[in-house]
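TA notes. Do not distribute before section.
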Amino acid sequence: MKTEILNIIKHPTLDHPEKFNQLFDFYKKNPSKDRNFESNFNRIGFTEHQFSKLIYEVKKVYKISDLEVVQHKFNDNSIRKPWGFCETPEEKCNMNYCDENGCQNRTRHLVEDSELNENINKETQNNEVPIRQEFPFLNSEDCPEEFKILVNDKITAYHKMVAGRGALDDPNTPEEQRAEIAQSVADADMLNSLIYEELKYYQETGKILGNHEIFATHNLKKAIENMTAEQKAQRIETLKGQIRVAKSALTKAEKKKDTEKVTDLKAKIEALELERNLVIKSLEKANN
């Protein structure tokens, strides 16, 4: 069962929503699951945050380490196709394709390795294609600025994955460093996939998917534009009160020298003020 789960996590063509659904099925079957988490996953459904959380929970209940995830090589014999025949004793034939299709006369199906490798390495190959060639919209003058930042992040994440996997394959890498390297590779892999989905969606639809946090302001503006004038006015007052409460809490935290809380509150105040300014601008624009 571990192999099935690892194949889902490392599948080169499944998108995150489909991976979420398949992993959730495995999570529901495990007696060690947290019923509160199960209810939460079922109620909210797929989001990138929920997807990351589900992967963590699935790995926990099935006792799968980050190192196992990184080192697992995706292998799905169902994508293998018959290419020819060769004489092989049936008792030595252990390929799923042959088993499912009932090998006869002590023969088995051959597999075109190039086709299998093409599927397995699809994501890696995508990184080898010049990204501006794969996504021409990046060369357009009206390309959203966020995508230019994401491209740099994607390239960085890809190189981190390559370097990390190289370190994990190196027998000289100290054992105590492997867990940290594996986590770094897993994080970079997740970021790389997330950015690729954003680029692919915009390429196909001309719209922003918005799952990456860089689009938080974009999503906020979109939500504000869907508000009525009355709702905007009410939201401004609500935000005003929330900012006041947060600033009061910040003053107390600074007196107590609680640096962690001070940092969190400053970030919260900044986010609240950003939203308030956006709502005010939107309301003023609607009134002009």
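Switch to the second chain here.
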Amino acid sequence: MAARILRNPPEPPPRPDNRSSDENADASGGLSFLLDALESPVISRRREGRYPLTTEVLVAPCDEHGVPNGDAVSMVTCDLAPSGVGLLHTEPFESEYLVMVFKRTPLARVRLLVRLIDRAVIGQLHRFSGVLMRKI
């Protein structure tokens, strides 16, 4: 039996997004000039392009309002998208929300509220995927 080839595959359904369009604009608006300066995004099946970016960030656990409630640690970004960020660290990070501050970029004074949505262990590193909620 021969396989059918779809000439125009259907579009995937939109992914759920718990943020309003105002929150999306707020978070990505603070990063737009940095994203513009980076190379083209990595092409993938994701809704938005990801930009490879390895830079040190300062991260502190916080509540859903962005009020820090623990000690800050240094992490490294692995990629950045208009509404999300990938982070790497050597230790687990238990908080659902974090405040992230870039250390060595033009965004050094921008503080972002991030909600972690995925955690994975890759060898000896912990990878965290987060949604940029808003600037704080």
